[in-house]
Amino acid sequence: MLKIIKFIVKIILLFYLIFLKEGFLDHQKLPPIFYTPVAISIIHFLIFFLSVNIIIRFAQMIYRKRKHQGDKYSDNVIIGLQNIYYLLMVMAVIVMIIGFFGIEFSKLLTAISIVAAAIAIISKEFVSDIIAGISITFSKELSIGDYVKIGEYKGRVVDINLHKIVLHHDDDDIIYIPNSKAYYEEIINYTQKEIRKFNVDFSINSNLNIPLSSLQVMIHRILLKYNDAVVIDSEKLKVINILQNEIRYKLQFKLNQMNPELAEQIKSEIREGISLLVIKNSQTSSN
User: Fold this and answer.
1) How far apart are CA 85 and CA 90, in angstroms?
2) CB of 218 within 8 A of CB of 200?
3) How far apart are CA 98 and CA 110, in angstroms?
4) Helical H runs in the chain?
5) Are 158 and 167 in contact (CB under 8 A)?
6) d(CA 81, CA 87)
């Protein structure tokens, strides 16, 4: 109810400012300060601000209604509209400040074009990030909450802003990836693909003579700890290459449900088990 009241107040204020700008309220004999370049520029800014704000909020409201979601629901479209809003407001503030000096509208457009061109040249990467960010937010490749791999980085998407994509890494680190870099990188979206099969690639020194059966027993013992999540007997361990000094293996296992975080936890424990087995055999060989 409060948001509806705020929305109505914004509309009323917008019409009042339009009437003020067009001179419909001159009969009220407003103070001369209302007709200075600063005041006129501020009025123009407020009209633009309220117009954009009303349009963006209304578009977000309609979108949420169509998806039968509440006011706090957010996805790429909501974020994309929000980013466009921020971008327009930054431009409007620049125009307002230039207007403080009483520059005519035609000259103002020329000045803005020159400034925009200069900014584009100086801040080429920043502008590229903004354009890529808007493109990403309106695409279906990424969404907030998706578990993804962008280039060499893997994690859950926690934010997509005008400049960067924010990932929550498996090691509990926060990674900031420029939008332009993410745009041109290979993106793997594990959430959308609902991948339930996971691989572990590793290699062992061939001089250790560790039997394949020993690896299978160790891996099976670890997977039994997660029997509620791992598909029974889904693990497949095979030798993929035999080199002069090492043997390369590939392990594959399958989860009942798509859960990348749990898969990474299992893979980490398997790697740790392999390391302990290698250390144990190294000590035996040295003795």
Assistant:
1) 9
2) no
3) 12
4) 2-22, 37-66, 76-99, 105-122, 124-137, 179-184, 190-193, 212-224, 260-286
5) yes
6) 10
Least Cα distance to 253 among 234, 237, 239 occurs for 234
Q: Which domain holds residue 158?
A: 147-192
Q: Is residue 7 part of a domain?
A: yes
- Give the helix ranges, DSSP H, for 138-259: 179-184, 190-193, 212-224
- From 137, 171, 192, the end of a domain falls on 192
Q: What DSSP state is assigned to residue 174?
A: E
Same domain, 73 and 103: yes
Domain at 263, CATH number: 3.30.70.380
Residue holding tokens 């302990």? 276
Which residues fall within 8 angstroms of residue 134, CB to CB, at 6 or more apart? 80, 83, 84, 87, 162
Residue 69 placed within a domain:
yes
| 131 domain-assigned | no
| Residue 172 zone, left/alpha/beta (φ > 0; ψ -120 to 50; rest) | left
Residues, the chain? 287
CB 149 within 8 A of CB 130: no
Q: For every one of its 287 residues, what pLDDT tens digit does the chain have, with 9 covering 90 and above?
A: 677 788 788 888 888 888 777 765 555 566 676 677 788 788 888 888 888 888 888 888 877 777 667 777 676 677 777 878 887 888 888 778 877 777 665 566 666 666 666 665 655 666 777 778 777 777 777 788 888 888 888 888 888 877 788 998 877 789 999 888 888 888 888 776 656 778 888 998 888 888 888 898 999 899 888 888 888 778 889 888 888 888 999 998 888 877 777 888 899 999 999 998 888 887 766 55
- The Cα 109–Cα 96 span in angstroms is 12
Domain total in the chain: 3
Q: Are residues 181 and 240 in the same domain?
A: no
